[in-house]
């Protein structure tokens, strides 16, 4: 059976998480992948659907989180 390890990068906004991730993917793209998270906040300037985030309505997010149990991590924006 093929084992998969998950590495999660945590930190404040602007702390360098994306920089570290891009460096890891560049060093070994066969071992490191970027996932695209879901968010209920509106896109910021320059962000693209499916690239930076999957932008969902609160109803879409709730359906995915509760009905399909497809989101291991759940949080909502207070905007």
Compute the average pLDDT: 82
Largest sheet: 2 strands, parallel
Which stretches are poorly predicted, pLDDT < 50 over at least 5 residues? none
Write the element-wise H/E pattern from the N-terminal end onward: HEEH
How far apart, in Å, are the first and last alpha carbons? 43 Å
Strand order of the largest sheet: 1-2
Q: Any idea what the radius of gyration is?
A: 14 Å
Number of helices: 2
Structural class: alpha+beta
Please bin the fraction of helical residues: 25-40%
Please state the overall shape, judged from the principal axes of the Cα atoms.
globular
Q: Please state roughly what percent of the residues sit in beta strands, choosing from under 5%, 5-15%, 15-25%, 25-35%, 35-45% or over 45%.
A: 5-15%
Count of β-strands: 2
Describe the structure.
The protein has 79 residues and is an alpha+beta fold. Helices cover 27% and strands 8% of the residues. The longest helix has 11 residues, at 17-27. It is globular. The mean pLDDT is 82.
List keywords for this structure.
globular, alpha+beta, 27% helix, 2 helices, two-stranded parallel sheet, 2 strands, 79 residues
Fold blueprint:
Blueprint: H1 17-27, E1 37-39, E2 53-55, H2 58-67
Quick overview of this protein structure:
By secondary structure, the chain is of the alpha+beta class. The chain is globular and about 40 Å long.
């Amino acid at each position: 059976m093929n084992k998969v390890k998950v590495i999660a990068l945590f930190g404040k906004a602007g702390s360098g998480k994306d920089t570290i991730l891009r460096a890891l993917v560049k060093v070994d793209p066969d071992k490191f992948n970027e996932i695209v998270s879901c968010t209920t906040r509106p896109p910021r300037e320059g962000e693209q659907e499916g690239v930076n985030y999957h932008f969902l309505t609160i109803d879409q997010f709730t359906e995915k989180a509760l009905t399909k149990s497809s989101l291991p991590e759940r949080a909502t924006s207070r905007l």
